[in-house]
Every structure is written in C-alpha cells, then in structure tokens.
Amino acid sequence: MKTFIIIFFFLITCSLYSQWLSDVRITNDNAYSYTCFNNARGVAAAGNYVHLVWFDDRNGFSNREIYYIRSTNYGASFEAENRLTNNSGHSMLACIAVSVSVVHVVWQDDRDGNNEIYYKRSTDNGNSWGSDIRLTNAPSLSEYPSLAVSGLSVNVVWWDYRDGDAEIYYKRSTNGGVSWEADTRLTSNSGWSLGPSVSISGSNVHCVWHDNRDGNDEIYYKSSADGGTTWGSDIRLTNNSSPQNDACVSSSGSLVHVVWKDSRDGNLEIYYKRSTDMGLTWSADTRMTTTTGQTWYPSIVASGQQIHLVYDDFTGTPEIYYIRSTNGGATWGTSLQLTTHTTGGSFRPSVAILDSSIHVVFTDTRHGIEEIYYKLNPTGVMRISLISNKIPSSFSLSQNYPNPFNPVTTIRFDIPKSSFVRLSVYDVTGREIEVLANENLSAGKYEVKWDAGKYSSGVYFYRLLTDGFVHTRKMTLVK
Prior knowledge:
Distance between the termini: 26 Å
CATH class of the largest domain: Mainly Beta
CATH topology of the largest domain: Neuraminidase
C-alpha cells in the first residue's frame, strides 16, 4: 500500500494534460503543404476512422492539389496519402466532414479559368473516391468554402463575387452529396461579407462570417431551422470599433458556439460567445486569450457539453494552443501549449473529436518548409454531466454503480464550491489509465460514465482530487 500511495503522489504532480501524445509528421516531401484556415476543417472523425485533408504544391507552385490521408485505428497510425485532385489549375483550401462511412471534401479550384467550388465524396470511409463535382458556375470568383454534414444533409458556404462585391452563398445536398440544389445567397449589403463558417445540428444550420457593412469588420450570424430551406435575418454578434474576423462556429443540440479573432484590446485576441437557444439570444463576449503578441485562426468543435478550441499564438514563435470547456462553454479551463519549437512554428490548426479522443491537425515549419502535422489526445473528452446545480454541503465521492460492472459504470461526485477537479482511474499497480475530469467546475452534483470496454477484468481504483479533498474508491470490472 505504501508503494501505491507514492505512485499516486508522483502521478498527481505530473502535467495535468499529459495525455496529449507526441506530434506526428504527416507529410514529408520537398514542397509546401498547407492546412486551411479556421473556417474550414482539415480533420474529421467517425467510427474508428480519422480523416485529414490538405493542399500541396509538390506538383509545382502553380499546380497545387488536394491530398488526403486516413487512420483506421483512432489516429494511432496513418495509411499512405491519397491525391484527390489532378488537373492543371490550383486546387486549394480544402475542407472535410464525415457522416458514418461517407467522407465529404470541398475546395476551391481554378481549372476552369476562375475559382469555383468543387466537391467529391467517398462512401467507404475514404478507401475509394468518386469524381469531382463542380458546385458553382459563375463568371466571378467563388472562394473559401466551409462544410458541415449531418446524415444525408451536406451544407456548403463560401464567399462569392458574382454580385459585384463579396457575399456569402450557400448550397446543400439532401441525399448525401449525390445531387445538389441551386445556390442560395445569404447576404445582401453594401459591404464585403467574407470568411463564412457553417455548422449543423439536427435540422438547424448555423452560419457565421465577418462583414464591413458598418464601417469595420464585425461578426454576423444567420440560421435556418429547416435544414437550409429558409433562412432568418442577419444577426450582428459583435459591436466595437476594432476589426473582428476569422469566425468559426460549432453547434450541438441547442448550444451554438462562435469564436473569432478581435483587436479591441490593442492586439489580436481570441473571443468567444454562445447561444443556449439555437441562436435566438446570445451571451456577452468572452475574452479567451491574454497575450503580448497576437492570436490567430481559432477552430472550435462541440459535442454536448464538451467544447474544444485550438488557435495559434504568435507571441514569439508561432505555437498551437488548446483550451476546453466541459459545461457547454459556461466556464473554461486553462490554455495548454500543444507545440514547442526552437526553430520554425505551428499555425492554422483545426480540431475534431471522436468518442473520448481529440484530434488536431496543423501546418508546421520546424523542417524549414511547411508540412502537415497531427496531434492526438486519446482520453481528452470528458463525459461529465451536471445532474443538479443544487449546492451540496460538502465534497463527496460516491461508490460507482453498477459495481461490479461490464463495461460501463457511473461515478457521481459533489462539489460544494467552484473548484479545480481531477477524477482519475488507476489499475492495481497504481498506474493512471484514464482521466475522467480535469477542469474547473462550478458547485453542483456531477456524474461521469466510464467505459472500460478496452480493459481486462479486474480491480480498479478511482480517485477524486480537488480543493482540500482527496478520496479513493475501488471498483470491479467483470467480463
């Protein structure tokens, strides 16, 4: 038992974010490889598959092409890359999304003499791919697409110059990308509307962008409650005298989350706001970063109460940072630096979640040329639920139920005041195998489900560590 206590002490003094694995280099060729900007995701995940997409100039700077790679084992390893486009023009700014086994990719392409939006899909988890489909056909530029998918509903937004200035356009497929409806113009104003980002939750489609109709760039929002058939009015989300741009949106159920970069504080910082009623009303702006340099390109993803945000910080060497919320964006944890460079830097990240894992892809220059890198946190998604906001009288950790269990059990705990909480699972040797909670939590009663499907039968321990309170209990997995 003395050895077990010593191991516990050592583990809790380690980094609270030690579950992040080492950086993985995806590309390795004598050419530049680029992830897209924050409004278009370069990573998607479903089942046990992780899908990455980027554009690459290995075929010549004037002939960029779209490339794809996948993992079939939750990001543990990746197969050989696959070239998705092959034409004499520029194919670039790719965005990827997945629904079950159908993988969707959009990008902009000038093979026809001007930039148009193109699309292709795979129906077998990226093993084989269909033909390129041209989505736009206008005499002007169609650029910077963003993509969101739910079941058979495929939604694309982009900015388009066909109306004399930049406006936001939308297009959808209701049969999984087999056929597409006509373009829908979402904005109509005297300013330029740029940088759209789209998200879908059920039949609710959400779009954000930045717009200078009011004299400077502000963040605007628009939504559809019927899957993109009709759209509501533009809603201005920001209101200050400095520029706001590079917005990114993610939604889950009735929660809608928006992040952007903002210079109201004298330098560029990341800001956040949320709606808890599907975009009808919005919270106040929340400043997410405080730096002496600049923060750029935020990318956000939501699943239930779990919100994950990545961005790059240009204070000195550009680095990727990560921050999360486990209560729907009400409060946020501490920012974590994901990359560390002595030379080069990392930028333009995007993020996806899969079950309990977090997946980040980014561009990196540590080798003197831009390459694609990937980073995995296999246990970073916490399955915490607030079951009552009634304030408990004291800290407590309940016995899990059922116990014995196979393979899922529920653990409940009480927090009488706002505290940093760490709930971990250990095997009989004292080795920490799962971190179930690692966040600032407000007062209340919580529960978290632990799925031990990948572990063998035996005795395990779970431990709650918080403000002046430490308690350990035993549980038994029987398969």
